[in-house]
Design brief:
Blueprint (H helix, E strand, L loop, with lengths): L1 H20 L1 H14 L9 H12 L4 H11 L11 E8 L5 E8 L2 H13 L4 E2 L9 E10 L4 H10 L2 E10 L2 E8 L4 H10 L3 E11 L3 E3 L2 H15 L4 E6 L1 E3 L1 H7 L1
Parallel strand pairs: 8-10
Antiparallel strand pairs: 1-2, 1-3, 2-9, 4-6, 4-7, 5-6
Helix pairs in contact: 2-3, 2-4
């Protein structure tokens, strides 16, 4: 999972910049709107609770969060811009597989934006199913802090975890990513919180089953530029690809 973690780390660094611009607010509000359709009480709606926690961690104002909940639940009148979740698939430079999750109120606009972002960066938008079989969805809990592996393993397994990976979640900040089945994500996150761990993120994520090793700096630049272009689109909630950047390439990119 190393390649995926490198992109996850790049995304976290990018997100901090985006937060200052306010770009991330709309995406997080959209997650809340969709989650609130299943109920407005965070205590009984894990998807909503997680979306609210992510929004608060990113500094989204409470008024924005409340408005998104009200909009999702229909309290603000008819929902003229109802969002639907769509998964898109494609290829990046060198045949890298790319999986995209979007929340959109206009399929044609979203597909056109994605096609443009791919083509401008050496990739192409593919047909549904072309690369999806290369990915498996997992629940992921991101922990911060210096961790004692034996204790983490015991707590994680009791919470339903399948695996974990120690990683630097931010620059010079140690931590770990704990993986489990999507259906076990709530129980896993609650078990880790109850054990006193500093839970930073709780999310569903697509994990590649195999990786394309990238050692060419030009290809790496094209792929990262493509990933950022896709991630910057308003309708896109997540972008995952199956490339693994060599350490020497990461050093050059830095």
């Amino acid at each position: 999972m190393a390649g995926h973690s490198k992109w996850a780390n790049i995304k976290r660094q990018k997100a901090r910049v985006d937060e200052k611009k306010g770009k991330v607010f709309a995406k997080l509000s959209r997650e809340i709107i969709v989650a609130a359709k299943q109920g407005t009480d965070p205590a009984g709606n894990f998807q909503l609770r997680t979306a609210i926690e992510k929004a608060k961690a990113a500094g989204v104002p409470n008024d924005n969060i409340d408005r998104a909940i009200a909009k999702g639940s229909g309290q603000l009148g008819s929902d003229d811009d109802a969002y639907e979740a769509i998964r898109y698939e494609g290829y990046g430079a060198g045949g890298v597989a790319v999986l995209i999750e979007a929340l959109t109120d206009n399929r044609n606009r979203t597909a056109a934006d994605l096609r443009s972002a791919f083509s401008k960066n050496g990739g192409n938008l593919g047909e549904t199913g072309c690369v999806g079989w290369m990915f498996e969805q997992k629940g992921v809990v991101v922990l911060a802090g210096q961790l004692e592996e034996e204790a983490l393993l015991e707590t994680a397994l009791e919470g339903g975890a399948e695996s974990y990976e120690l990683t630097e979640i931010e620059e010079e900040m140690p931590g770990a990513e704990v993986f489990g089945a999507p259906t076990d994500l709530e129980a896993l996150s609650e078990a880790l919180k109850a054990a006193g761990y500093d839970v930073r993120e709780v999310e569903l994520r697509w994990i590649p089953s195999n990786f394309v090793d990238v050692s060419d700096s030009d290809q790496a630049r094209a792929l990262l530029k493509m990933m950022e272009a896709l991630d910057d689109l308003d309708d896109v909630q997540s972008v995952t690809a199956n490339f693994d950047l060599a350490d020497e390439v990461m050093a050059v990119m830095a």
